[in-house]
Amino acid sequence: MRFYFVLLALISPTVLAVADDFTRFRGADATGVVADHPRLPTQWDESKNVAWVADVPGQGWGSPIVVGNRLFVSSVVADEANIKPQGGLYLGEGVRDPAKGIHHWMVYCLDIDSGETIWKHEAHTGRPVVPRHPKSSYAAETPTTDGERLFVLFGDLGLYAYRLDGELLWSQMIDPKKTNMDYGAAASPVVHDGQVIVVYDNKEESWIASFDAESGHPRWRTPRDEVMSWATPFVWENDQRTEIVVPGQRLNRSYSLDGKELWNFDGDMSVLVIPSPFAAHGMLYMSSGYVGDAHRPTFALRPGASGKLDTESGFQQNKFIEWYQPTASPYNTTPLVYGDYLYTLYDQGFMTCHNALTGDVVYGKQRFSPKGSFTASPWAYDGKVFCLSEDGLTYVIEAGEKFNILATNPLDELCIATPSVADGKLFIRTLTKVYCITQP
């Protein structure tokens, strides 16, 4: 045992990855469900159960990610004032002109115990060349990590890889394209088995590509016949194979780890595809639910499909589609499977619950009180589901067959980013800050 502690001292300040690291959007397994921990709180406000608050300059809506004792977050700082993001639904055009002035694309590393800045790095300096969604920022993506390196994607700009101590290892610039309604990019990167996967759907030349995690060299790039999807890809490790799943407005698709298409099907998805796929109970869950569309589907799929799935006789007639609900999907948020229940948080301030195994309705739309609108995806621990509104109010919902609000926790600032959880600490990113929330 003494040798173990001596060894730790010798290798310091190397960051040691641990099992509960929060390594990508919605956590290492992409479900938003984290292990119970005695310090994870049910109640908080701007001072109660707050270990520290760190100011983060600029704007960014990516979730914080955590490796060992370090938290990483990206942001873009503008030298001139521009249109400030606001909550609510935008049913029209984006900001049609690029933001004004010089911008600084930044990466920050914070100590998770104190909130102090360990290092920061300016990845790029210049003027934006593409517009963006009025609610978004030029740092909309959540970084990811393989436990040794940090990968930061600024979607219309480039992919950057760092050592965890802040050394820039490599970068791959991205040729910016026109996106639907000038909303800009938003899909986060994922890393698996030595490769970083990036999806860039746009109106000119959409693609999914892989970059070598160590060197940054492109491994493969596959064109995509898509124009309007922003979902983060999902590496589905099922009992038959490992595949990369990407939903799309035209086709939902799966790819092999070398970029070959494995299967696809037309899910009659929403015109805007934003929720990210994930797996639970051996099934894959996919959804899209733009509020202006009549068909807002949620699918649960079994592994093993190949080629084009036949759905002409109905979605549930295909043996690989376990169940399907035609109007159950949210717009921006990603649903959550916790236990045997699938919880769907709607942007307009409702929640529904379905049986995750069968798709049967457990309870229909229940309105939050006080009312709120939502962009951040829900998360769960300790028998509770947590929903963060754009006003900074977190609703604590009792998991189970009945909709019951147990508590409401205010932070009173615009919140778009999905929170993160690691080491008994909840990290909530607001417009200007990162809160570390934990019970003493």
TrEMBL record:
Keyword flag Signal: yes
Residue ranges occupied by any Pyrrolo-quinoline quinone repeat domain in the UniProt entry: 32-226
Signal peptide range: 1-19
Record field: transmembrane: none
Domain of life from the UniProt record: Bacteria
Keywords per UniProt: Signal
SUPFAM superfamilies, per the entry: Quinoprotein alcohol dehydrogenase-like
InterPro entries named among the record's database cross-references: PQQ_rpt_dom, Quinoprotein_ADH-like_sf, WD40/YVTN_repeat-like_dom_sf
Cited PANTHER family: CELL SURFACE PROTEIN, OUTER MEMBRANE PROTEIN ASSEMBLY FACTOR BAMB
Protein name, per record: Outer membrane biogenesis protein BamB
